[in-house]
């Protein structure tokens, strides 16, 4: 299948590959099929064991840690982009987090601290990344983020196993 867009030689940073089934991994695969060069992140050493094989299979050029809750780690990531590539063409933000206790129950019953943490990791970190990416995109670029169906519709809190849906990204 011929890609709809040519990303040959474009450099992209993919934040949020968790494993080979994650949406970020599917996006990264689509970017690679379109000819992009990629860097990717992992949350911590434990998650690195799941991300590394996916990155290797996709031909990701380099991996770096990125826990947006850790002071300075996001800045270090973009310093690495500057060192490795000097510029960036696109960024994919595909991370989200909420404390477990705030995920079980009604959203109106979530704690203020849990809600603030969820917004910081899941939303505000995208703005922080955009600010750090902007100077690396002097010739223009693209910032992408992944959202959840629950951001558009009320999703009933059902206590059962998650039903995962397969998404295919066509670029």
Question: What are the salient characteristics of this protein?
Answer:
globular, 171 residues, disordered C terminus, 5 strands, 5-stranded parallel beta sheet, alpha/beta, 13% strand
Explain what this protein looks like in three dimensions.
- The chain is α/β, with parallel strands linked by helices and 171 residues long.
- The protein is 37% helix and 13% strand.
- The protein is built from five helices and five strands.
- It has helices spanning 23-33, 45-58, 73-85, 100-103, 112-133, and strands at residues 11-15, 37-42, 62-65, 90-93, 142-145.
- The protein has a five-stranded parallel β-sheet with strand order 3-2-1-4-5, with helices on both faces.
- Helix 2 (45-58) links the parallel strand 2 and strand 3.
- The relative contact order is 0.18.
Strand order of the largest sheet: 3-2-1-4-5
The strand count comes to: 5
Low-confidence stretches at least 5 residues in length (pLDDT < 50)? Answer: 160-171
SSE string, helix = H, strand = E?
EHEHEHEHHE
Instruction: Provide the β-strand percentage band.
Output: 5-15%
Largest sheet: 5 strands, parallel
Helix/strand class? alpha/beta
Morphology call? globular
Question: Helix proportion of residues, in percent?
Answer: 25-40%
**Rg over alpha carbons:** 17 Å
Number of helices: 5
Mean pLDDT equals 89
Distance between the termini: 11 Å
């Amino acid at each position: 299948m011929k890609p709809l867009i040519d990303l040959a030689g474009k450099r992209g940073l993919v934040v949020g590959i968790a494993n080979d089934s994650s949406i970020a991994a599917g996006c990264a695969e689509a970017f690679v099929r379109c000819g992009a060069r990629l860097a990717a992140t992992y949350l911590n050493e434990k998650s690195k064991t799941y991300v590394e094989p996916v990155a290797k299979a996709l031909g990701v050029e380099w991996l770096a840690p990125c826990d947006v809750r850790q002071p300075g780690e996001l800045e270090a990531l973009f310093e690495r982009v500057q060192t490795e590539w000097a510029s960036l063409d696109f960024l994919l933000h595909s991370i989200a987090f909420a404390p477990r206790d705030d995920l079980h129950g009604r959203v109106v019953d979530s704690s203020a601290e849990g809600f603030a943490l969820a917004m910081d990791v899941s939303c505000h970190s995208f703005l922080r990344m955009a600010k750090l990416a902007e100077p690396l995109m002097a010739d223009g670029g693209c910032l992408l983020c992944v959202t959840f169906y629950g951001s558009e519709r009320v999703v009933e809190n059902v206590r059962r196993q998650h039903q995962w849906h397969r998404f295919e990204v066509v670029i």
